[in-house]
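Take a specimen:
=====
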Amino acid sequence: MKETPLSNCERDFLLKAIQEKKRLDGRQTYDYRKLKIMFGTDFGCCFVELGKTRVMAQVSCELVAPKENRPNEGIMFFNIELSPMASPAFEQGRQSELSVKLNRQLERCLRNSKCIDLESLCVVSGEKVWQIRVDVHMLNHDGNLMDAASIAAIASLCHFRRPDVGIQGDEVTVYSPNERDPIPLSIYHMPISVSFAFFQQGTYLLVDPCEREERVMDGLLMIAMNKHREICSIQSSGGIMLLKEQVMRCSKIASVKVSEITKLIMKALENDKTARKAGGKCGFAESMPQERITALKKDETAVEMTDVTERANDIVLNAEVLPQTSQSLLVPLPGMGQVGKDLPNSWGIEEYDQDEEEAFNSDEDKQTTMEVGEKQKAHDVVEISDSEEDEVVILQPEAMDKAHKKTSSSSHLKEPAASKKRHRK
């Protein structure tokens, strides 16, 4: 998977910020990111955090046959793994150009600088020597992998202990840590790499570039140096031409950074040794806070709290007084509604006022009462029902009694005539 390229806006923003001597994380030009060194439970395991760049180094050893041209020296081997866990741009099981470049630079920094006494790794001349293997795994990529890898590798070598060996005749016996205490490696000095990024053909310089700054840089200079100000290796990439004054200035900056990092490594080794002797927390358990989720852990940001009360009072005094009632929403476009009281209607439908509506209702009541009175006079109407059926007219009681008597008398006269006809038959 290819990495996502930077847009032109991001590139211009980064270059403009560098011209103004500003960085994305708030650092100055020659500032390093926060460096944290932790050691694992086993000897030779080291975790290094350089900002958000996270690297793990593990040292292992085994007895092998020496090289023919160097029968009295041990073997030192380095391997750098760029896993997709660190960045989606890295591919599993395939060496990229970046991994080959980092591997060669690490070999120049540690093996070619003779920082370890390889002759002390010889067990039997010409037959068996110790092979030291340093595996560096990139856990998260946020720029400047070389510096983090070199710090993790040299710190893990200082922390590593090889098993003790006994020789009786032709037999070689390897003792376990329970039988004999393991032996540390003989380290002469601690070379550490410091990276410098150049922008606009060497006009601007930054120390410890992050991942986004590496994308817009024109060239990179890596200087490996120890605390004695001895340059172990130097490499320039990017095809940029550097002046002698620029290289000398970078070497002076690197000497200061290397001395600070060396003190930090020595302090971390001493703290781990003290914790192991005291039986306290040591190794990776030290980095695990109790009763806390590490995924939600955040670094504390320093906030200036000197004149908070005064500034808060000034803000309260100078603040505008808010209105008691909130203004309603006005929508001037036709055909759209609006919310609020005492506002004109914008739905396009005419609306009566309250006075006009009351007058209209009173006129309707008068008209209905006049119609009922006219019907009452014409038909002697007493009551009109409100049902949907035909109107029911109730006459006056006297007229109803007369009509009832007439119907009853006519019914009595017809009944005997009908009975006479039946008897005749």
About this structure: The CA atoms of residues 398 and 404 lie 10 Å apart.
